[in-house]
Amino acid sequence: AQSVAQPEDQVNVAEGNPLTVKCTYSVSGNPYLFWYVQYPNRGLQFLLKYITGDNLVKGSYGFEAEFNKSQTSFHLKKPSALVSDSALYFCAVRDSGGYQKVTFGIGTKLQVIP
Amino acid sequence: DAMVIQNPRYQVTQFGKPVTLSCSQTLNHNVMYWYQQKSSQAPKLLFHYYDKDFNNEADTPDNFQSRRPNTSFCFLDIRSPGLGDAAMYLCATSVGPTRNEKLFFGSGTQLSVL
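YS: structure for the whole thing
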């Protein structure tokens, strides 16, 4: 069975500093990996995805994520955090051998401090 | 703008009283999903439709049913809500069933059970 782990319930970072939100995954085949963001009282919004190719994936709002197959990780990063980045971030995975089901992590709350 | 719309935003029902949550989409996507999201937990897939084909997750309680009368609309019926069914219910769509497809989410319906 596929699974996603987000080891940090909350990440605090000062505005202007780089941020990292961690994610590790487990799948039986090749992973399709996603990051979504959820702002208060809103649904989830797609940020970026890794399917194949370059291990560094660029997405919306200046976010990027680095795929590391040996560490089965897909950490979300941004060089300079904004207060408006404060939100709940979800990592998700689809198994290449599976069907449409997307498995989400429990989410990490990002708090950017002014 | 094309989007996924969920109504109502907040729904209050009584223990055991049937309730229906609605989702509509203007994206003309083939796949529609229902997720249950409880506080501090990962969104959990309940079921999905690929066109008219209904796919139920193995651990979705029988108390939960769904209808998709046409491409644009999908409904979640909870026949006899219990206190444990209080949650955010998220509707999502995707263009198709391929594994690299991203999901488009509505803003969710927060269900309270009294």
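YS: worth flagging: Chain B has a mean pLDDT of 92.
IM: good catch. Also The two ends of chain B are 36 Å apart (CA to CA).
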